[in-house]
Amino acid sequence: MRTVYLDALLLGSIQRDHIDEIADSLSDVFDGPGLARRVAALEGQLARFRSVYWQQHLTAHGPANDLLVAFQEQYRLPERFADVTAQAADFGQWVQTRQNQQISGALGILTILGLPLGTALGVVQALGTDSPWHLAAGLGAAFAATAAALATPYGRLVLASLRESPAPPPPPGPPTP
Q1: Where are the domains positioned within the chain?
Q2: Distance in angstroms (rounded) separating the CA atoms of residues 102 and 123
Q3: Transmembrane residues, as ranges (predicted)?
Q4: pLDDT band at 169, cuts 50/70/90?
Q5: Mean per-residue pLDDT for 96-112?
């Protein structure tokens, strides 16, 4: 016969198991390609856990709630849940920052390449010439302007943002019992 006391213990066990699973997923999140996808899946897993399983009260009052709270405290579930939530948020922020840096770098490259090229082709067109020598001179000037722009501190910063990857956040510590 099932009772509300058994429900409290089962819910506590499910909470503990899910927190362990999420902590394991956190420790593996930087392994392999597709980091943004894995972090998003982890955040979804955490949100589903929070909405379905993370309860701290079974009834309005009574011994079943006390039993659930005692189980959660014995296994430090509130602290562990707060830790995995904070780590997942840190990882999500890190991924978002990295994606923003890559987008900014790509837009910077487009600007550095596109502005001199567009200006050179506009000048050649404004001159009304069809000479391949004029086109080659315009493209050469655009190439020189692009090289000069990439040699500036801004150009080097744009290139570095595409090449370098900031250090990932430290991995989570060992799971706590």
Answers
A1: 4-163
A2: 32
A3: 106-127, 133-154
A4: low
A5: 88
